[in-house]
Amino acid sequence: MAAGNTPENRSSQYTLQNDESSTSAARSYDDQGPAVKEEPLVVERVPWSVIAQEFTEIWGRHDPQDPQPEHTEVIGINGSGKTLWMCKAVQERMLSRHTACIILQSKPADETIMQLGWPIVTNGDVKRALKERWCVYWPLTNATGNERKRYQADMFKRLLDALWRPNANTIVVLDDVGYIQGLHTSRGEPLNPDIEMYLREGRSSGITCLLVKQRPQGAKREMHSETYWTIAFAPKDEDDQERFAQLFGNRKQFQPIFAQMNSEKHEFLIKYHRSGLAVISWIDTPLRPLARPKPNVKSRS
Ligand SMILES: Nc1ncnc2c1ncn2[C@@H]1O[C@H](COP(=O)(O)OP(=O)(O)OP(=O)(O)O)[C@@H](O)[C@H]1O
Ligand SMILES: [Mg+2]
Prior knowledge:
- The chain is an alpha/beta fold.
- The chain has one domain: Rossmann fold, CATH 3.40.50.300.
- It is 35% helix and 15% strand.
- The protein is globular.
- The protein starts with 6 loop residues before the first helix and ends in a 20-residue tail after the last strand.
């Protein structure tokens, strides 16, 4: 990717990385872009299988000489395809860069995540979760209501505390971050300050936060400002279109894009905030369990 501007590389380097040869339409996605701002946007449609490789290469490697984690936010209503996108993205990182990943899961059941085939740690065993390197950390209990929430909070806190160390070099997925943020431990401590700390300071320990959520307004503003990639599925009504469009920088430009997206096809808009470029995509290959690398394999940052 370092040599991304050579003609040979241009065809594989699709549309997300900054590229001076881009058309004016493609370049007008930039938040601070000058004169082209009010022109209608033309956003390409590209199946995920075509751009997945490029995404995996540039995610956190804007400057390959100095790789820095890039927090990522995935937004969409129930059943839009958020967890499927997340699973594909972390699976690719596992295969091509051996980046460790722990998925914090809180739902009672989730068919999509099961298809990833990663071990599931249900008893809060943090040591095991770290040793596996690729796993779903999914504390389960028979308790209900607030007792269940406190149990989940205790287990998540335990993991977040253990992961907080120099060179953690891990992707931390918070699936339904809005729910996790609202939890309090049995000692009454809110989890939100830990999550804010992960977002603000995690990058220096090599931590990439991948936030999955249903609504943009559920999370604090700070969350968006720390995010380098936004993936948003078709919103369900005009109000949501407006809120989603705001996350992409220029509301007027992005609202019509959201209005034309096909939710039946599980289309999403992905934007790289460093380059200002965006495309519409959809997952076009099935999620299958793939062998994990050996736990002691070195990751490529
Ligand atoms: N591109 C796609 N092609 C075919 N099926 C898809 C696609 N995207 C998602 N689905 C299917 O839609 C269903 C919901 O997907 P997923 O679990 O990823 O949604 P979600 O946004 O995480 O939902 P929730 O908010 O309930 O967690 C799953 O059965 C999934 O396989
Ligand atoms: Mg989901």
